[in-house]
Every structure is written in C-alpha cells, then in structure tokens.
Automatic annotation (TrEMBL):
GO cellular component, one term: plasma membrane
Assigned EC number: 7.2.2.12
Name under which the protein is recorded: P-type Zn(2+) transporter
Domain of life: Bacteria
Organism, scientific name: Trinickia soli
Domain P-type ATPase A positions: 117-214
A GO molecular-function descriptor: ATP binding
Keywords of this entry: ATP-binding, Cell membrane, Membrane, Metal-binding, Nucleotide-binding, Translocase, Transmembrane, Transmembrane helix
Family statement drawn from the similarity comment of this UniProt entry: Belongs to the cation transport ATPase (P-type) (TC 3.A.3) family. Type IB subfamily.
Catalytic activity: Zn(2+)(in) + ATP + H2O = Zn(2+)(out) + ADP + phosphate + H(+)
Cellular compartments annotated: Cell membrane; Membrane
Length: 763
C-alpha cells in the first residue's frame, strides 16, 4: 500500500510538471488556446486525487486541509485561470511526493526489520536435518542455523557462534556468543553453522514480537497527528472566512483564490507525522522499538519512572553461587539435570544454568515433553527421567520436601539471592543457588535520567524490604517499594498517574500488567520483545538501561521539532494569507511561496532524525573490553584469599598467621600489583586519549596508589612479626589492612568495569 501511494504521488508529480512545461512552451509559441487546454488537463488528475483523499478522510471521520487545495484548483479552473490551476497542481503534487519521501525515509529503519523475518527453520528430526515451516518449531527442538541464515526462534546455543545483531540492535559489530548463552530470533549467523536448542515458539520469539510492534507502529496515528487534524479543521474555517472576506471587501474573487492557494497544503499535516516518524526511526536505529507515535509523545513528557529491580536494574544474568544437594546425589549431577532441562526455557535463570554447566564441561542432554509455568518453573523429560526445576513451591508440587531444604531456605532468606530447586522422578535432589548483580550502566543511567527531567525514580520489587532498601540506597532512587505483589505494583502506578506521565520499565515477562497500566510501558532487553509486545509501548532491544536515556532524549527532541515546525509553518502561512488578502500576492506567486514554506517545514521536521547519542565519539573496541574484564576475573581468587584470611585470622595459630600472610603477599606480588601497574602504564593512557581532557583518570590512578600503599604496609607488617606470633594489636592491624585492601580493590574494579562498559563499542 505504501509503495502504491508513493507511485501514485510520483505519477501525479510527473503529469503536473510535464503539462505545466508543455503548456508554457505552447503559450510561448502563440498557441494559447491549446496551452490552456493542456494546463486544464494537467490539473484534473491532481483534482481527482484530492477529492479521493478528502473522501477517505471523511469516511475515517478526519478533517484535513486538502479541501483548501481542492477549492483553490477548482476555483482557478472555474475562473479560467488554467495556468494558476496548473501551478497549484504542481505544487500540491510536489508537496505530496515530498511528504511521502520524507515519511518513507523516516520509516526506513523500522521497515528494514520486516524484510528480515525468518520463514523456516532447519530442525533435527528422524535422524536428519530437515527444513520445516517456522510454526512447527517447539521448545526443546534441536535447530541448526546455517552461515548467513537468520536465527529462526529464541533459544540457547549448543556451541560458540558469531552473530550479526545489527537488525535488532543497530550495532554493526559482530558479536561472539558462547555455549549456553541465550540468543534472539532475527540475528544473522555471521560465522560457521551452529546448533541451538529452541526455547520458544515462533510466535513467542523476539523477532515475532518486533514484527507485531513495527506493524502496529506503522498503522497507529500519533495523538499529535490527530490534534493536527483538529487544528486543521479550525484552520480551514479561518482560511475560508479570510478568503470570503477579502472577496466581499475588494469585490475581486481573485483575492479569494490567492488566499486559498497560499493556505494549501498546511504545514500541520506535513510537519507532525514527519517529525514523529523520524523520532521513531532514530529510536529503532539505536535498538529502541517504539510501538507508535503516541507512545513517543508520552515518553517525551514522562516525569515519573517506575522500574522493576530484577532484570532491569540488575543484569538479569544470575551467576552460580553454590549447589546444595542430598546425600545420594553429587553437585554435578544436580546441575546437569537442571541445565539440560533449562535449555528449553528462555528465562534468564535458565540461561545462567546452562552457562554454568558448560563452564564445568558437563555434557547436557536434549529435553523433551516440556511444560513451563511462567515465573515458577518447568518440567520435562531428560534421559528418560522426569525432571522439574524452579521455585521451592513449584518443585514441591512435583516432589516431596527434602529435609535439607528448610536450612537452605533459611540461609537464602538471611543472605538474599535465589535458588533453583531440582527434582528427579518425584525426589527433590538438590538446589542451585544463584545471585544477580547490578548492571554496570545502572548508576550512570539513573543519573542521566534525572538530568533529562525525570523527577521521581521509584523501584518496585518483590524482594524483602531490607534487601530492596540496600539496593535503593546504593543507587540513590527517590522511593523504594518492597515486597510488592502484581496488584500492589498496579495500585502504585495508577496513584502516580495523577502526578504526571508515568513510565514503567520491566523485564517484559512478569511485569506485563504494570507495563500496561503505565502511560508508557518499556520492556527491558531483547527478551521482553516476544513476551510483552502487546503490553509494552516500547522495547529496549539492546540489553542496556542507558538506552532508555537515548529514547527519552530522542522523543523530546522529536516532539520539540514537531511543535516548532507547526508554529513556524502556520505563522508563515497566515502571514502569506494576509498579504494575499490585500491583493499583494497573485495566485501563481502564492503557490510558489507556499511550496517554499512546505519545503522549509519538512526539512526542519527531518531534523528530528539527528539527535546526540550517549555513545561516545571514541569507543573502546569490544576485544579490549573482554580482555580487561577477563583480567579482573583472574583477580577473583586473590580477593577471595584476602577476605578468607581476614575472616579467619583470629582463629589461626601464631605459625599459621605468618605463613598465611606470606601467601597473601606472594599472591599480591604475582597477580594484583603487576595488574594495577600495567593498567596505570598501558591502559589508562589509551583511555585518557579517548576521553579527552588533561587528566581524566586522575582519581582512578589515585586508587592505584592507595592499593600499592596498603599492599606495602601489609608486607612490612608481615616482615616485622615477632617469632612467637603477632600480638592483639598487630592482629587487628593485619585484619584492618586486609579488609581495607579487599574493599578498595573491589570498588576500583567495579569503577573500571563501569568505565569500560560505558566506552565499549555498542556495549
């Protein structure tokens, strides 16, 4: 349909331009009668197109200013001003073609998504690979993705893969994904063929959700466009009144024609759609899919932000802490059963299980007969045995309660975190304890959101109050709402809507009611697209909270440009109408002037496609980011050694204290100190050149000096211990230095990782 309209507008432009030019040549040759006939014929198709568009608008109960163009061409033909009619027709046709070009250009990023939709999948069945329709793929199916092919459904990788995710995220760099990681449909295999285990049906996968949202966005009319229609009706009445008054006062119907010519088409119907769609396109280019122009406008006016904690403020990528199990089962067996079944689920905990199992080199089996209960757990068959994983309450419906579970639940309640309980053949065999971490970009994103005009930051979570308030204090949120049920979240959002436009950000799986209740619901991360495309108004396809800042910035920029274009365009048009009413602007000159106004308005509206992004002009390559993070991970055993010694120092014998301190100092000299010196000498100069300024990493270098100082003091203390062991003062001083060293190194590493993440190419 879009292509047909573009073709029709182009044909009208060609006809009107050709007939106007031919008529001018004939008139110059002295064939005035034939020239007038050619101009008359050239104006008729545009007149007919205007009549059809007005009729369609009336059927849809919309008003528009096309009626002014229709009246001006009709009046010009009636007065035998065929040259004026031909010029007006050319201006109208060029304006329609220009508007169509601007909107098609603005929609380019969103429309590109639709052309990449996968149609079939290669599935393992009956001992061979076979191409099957996409609708036949089920969770747990073994799927192969060939080189250059599109990932058909969401799933978990069976091995390493290289993916081009630019269609989803706008990031052109090839991503290296490892075995066990979850991947989204719509990504393109940029490397060798790989296998995956499907975790969702095609209709529930990420790309299907994106396609639904893009189609809805292309069909939905922005409230600003509807508001423009209402202003257009008012503008039509004013234009007709001014035209009639000029005719009656001057007694010259030509003045009425001049007024109508200048009044059509109005910048109202050109500026708003182009600016809003340009904003939506820019969001899509940055991996932010906005469902419609209305959502973009509400996003621009948002002043209150609610967000879920898990998967939004935290990474949603839990890490394995420990495995508890009964006396008859070993930990690897518990993890293998849990991870094998988890391959068929797209939940973040399931992905963490499969990654943990593959890191331990466990061989996973293909699950079958899968049944998943959202937010609770799933059950299926692994190696011929019935396995259930999930919450304690869920697994208790499939197995008897184990005696060790009470102790584990008590520890979890005290320490926080979560556990995935595992049952095999109706026996609770173990539990995998998981912990989540704050996203690296979360603190910076919240600071930037405040700077962009968000007045209230409210965290909604089902966690206990003490845990929730600890996280809230760490991030500096305005309000913490802990121990929230879905009904509590709904009530909080509905109450806040009386104070302003409410934005709700959730992980898109369990937060659908809250997302639907807010003025603008945003599903966080690619997983949210498939699960909450109906409930959310927007999806952040890039799994970074700071992209929300980009979305708000783009939305406010687009709305500001739309309003600016309307005000400037209408002011220029009204001024031209007044000049025409006084007889100082003939119809042909008025048509040319109105075309100039239309071009100015559309070009200004297209400025909405240019907005400053949060991405730095100079970026740190992903390979460097991965290497720097790997170096930090290598320091983890050293930090654990320091903390363990600090905790256990009072219980050690005099001889053991000296030996333990010597071991720690050796680890510091071998691993920690060389790492920090290398950062100071090699890494920081490179980062400083990317950041700019005289000494942007001065504070970070100061942390290095404090680490060196504390390590030196610890070494001196150990070398000065008496032969019979430390006294109480020395013991306390050793503990103080150990605890202090661990704290500063952990904080310093966290700061560095946030910096690396912020500067990474595409995050």
């Amino acid at each position: 349909m879009s292509r047909f309209r573009f073709s029709a507008d182009f044909v009208l432009l060609v006809i009107s331009a050709a007939t106007l030019t031919a008529g001018a040549v004939l008139f110059a040759l002295g064939l005035a009668t034939i020239a007038r006939a050619v101009w008359f014929i050239g104006a008729l198709p545009v007149l007919l197109a205007l009549a059809l568009s007005i009729g369609k608008a009336l059927l849809e109960r919309r008003a528009g200013v096309d009626i002014l163009a229709l009246l001006s061409i009709g009046l010009a033909l009636t007065l035998r001003e065929t040259a004026a009619a031909a010029v007006i027709a050319l201006m109208v046709a060029s304006g329609r073609a220009l508007e169509r070009y601007a909107q098609d250009r603005a929609k380019r990023e969103m429309t590109a998504l639709l052309s990449r939709a996968p149609r079939e999948a290669v599935r393992w069945e009956n001992g061979q690979w076979a191409s099957v329709p996409l609708e036949q793929v089920r969770p747990g199916d073994r799927v192969m993705v060939r080189s250059g092919a599109c990932v058909p459904v969401d799933g978990a990788l069976s091995g390493a893969a290289q993916l081009d995710e630019s269609t989803l995220t706008g990031e052109s760099e090839i991503k290296q994904r490892e075995a066990g990681e979850g991947i989204c449909s719509g990504a393109v295999n940029a490397g060798a063929p790989f296998e995956m285990v499907a975790s969702a049906r095609s209709d529930d996968s990420t790309f299907a959700g994106i396609v639904r949202m893009v189609r809805a966005a292309q069909q939905e009319r922005s409230p600003a466009a509807r508001l423009a229609d209402r202003y257009a009706l008012f503008f039509v009445l004013v234009s007709l009144a001014l035209a009639g008054a000029s005719w009656l006062i001057a007694g010259d119907i030509g003045r009425a024609l001049a007024v109508l010519v200048v009044a059509s088409p109005c910048p109202l119907i050109l500026a708003v759609p182009v600016a809003i769609v340009s904003g939506m396109s820019q969001c899509a280019k940055r991996g932010i899919l906005i469902k419609g122009g209305g959502a973009l406008e509400r996003l621009a006016q948002a002043s209150i932000l609610f967000f879920d904690k898990t998967g939004t403020l935290t990474g949603g990528r839990a890490r394995l802490v420990s495995i508890d199990c009964g006396p008859q089962t070993d930990s690897d067996t518990v993890l293998r059963y849990a991870a094998s079944l988890a391959q068929a689920s797209g939940h973040v905990i399931s992905e963490a299980l499969t990654i943990a199992a593959r890191e331990r080199n466990l061989s996973l089996s293909m699950p079958s007969d899968i049944a998943e209960t959202a937010g609770a757990g799933l059950v299926g068959t692994v190696d011929g045995r019935r396995v259930a994983i999930g919450s304690f309450a869920y697994v208790c419906t499939h197995a008897a309660v184990a005696p060790w579970s009470e102790r584990l639940l008590r520890n979890i309640g005290y320490e926080g975190g979560a556990a995935v309980f595992v049952a095999v053949d109706a026996n609770m065999v173990g539990a995998v304890r998981m912990a989540d971490q704050l996203r690296l970009e979360t603190p910076r994103a919240l600071r930037l959101l405040k700077r962009e005009g968000i007045k209230r930051l409210v965290m909604l979570t089902g966690d206990r109050r003490d845990i929730a308030e600890t996280v809230g204090a760490l991030l500096g949120v305005t309000q913490v709402c802990a121990e929230q049920t879905p009904a509590d979240k709904l009530r909080a959002i509905e109450a806040a809507r009386a104070d302003g436009i409410v934005l709700m950000v959730g992980d898109g799986v369990n937060d659908a009611p809250a997302l639907a209740a807010a003025d603008v619901g945003v599903a966080m991360g690619a997983r949210g697209a498939g699960a909450a495309s109906e409930a959310a108004d927007a999806v952040l396809l890039v799994d970074r909270l700071d992209r929300l800042v980009d979305a708000i910035r783009i939305a406010r920029h687009a709305r500001r440009i739309a309003v600016q274009s309307v005000v400037v365009g209408m002011a220029l048009t009204i001024a031209a109408m007044i000049v025409a009413a006084f007889g100082m602007l003939p119809p042909i000159a008025g048509a040319l002037l109105q075309e100039v106004i239309d071009v100015v308005v559309i070009v200004n509206a297209l400025r909405a496609s240019r907005v400053r992004s949060l991405v730095a002009a100079s970026e740190l390559p992903q390979a460097d980011v991965r290497r720097l993070k790997a170096e930090h991970e290598a320091l983890a055993p050293v930090l654990t050694q320091i903390r363990t010694l600090a905790d256990g120092l009072p219980q050690l014998s005099a001889a053991r204290v000296a030996a333990a301190l010597s071991d720690v100092n050796e680890s510091l000299d071998r691993h920690l100190i060389p790492h920090e010196r290398s950062d100071d000498a090699d890494v920081y100069p490179r980062l400083a050149s990317l950041l700019g300024g005289d000494d942007p990493l001065a504070a970070m270098s100061s942390a290095h000096r404090e680490i060196f100082r504390t390590a030196r003091l610890l070494r001196q203390l150990a070398s000065n211990l008496p032969a019979d062991g430390p006294d109480l003062v020395q013991l306390r001083e050793a503990q103080r230095l150990l605890y202090g060293l661990e704290a500063i190194v952990r904080l310093h590493c966290a700061q560095e990782e946030e910096l690396f993440h912020t500067m990474s190419a595409g995050g």
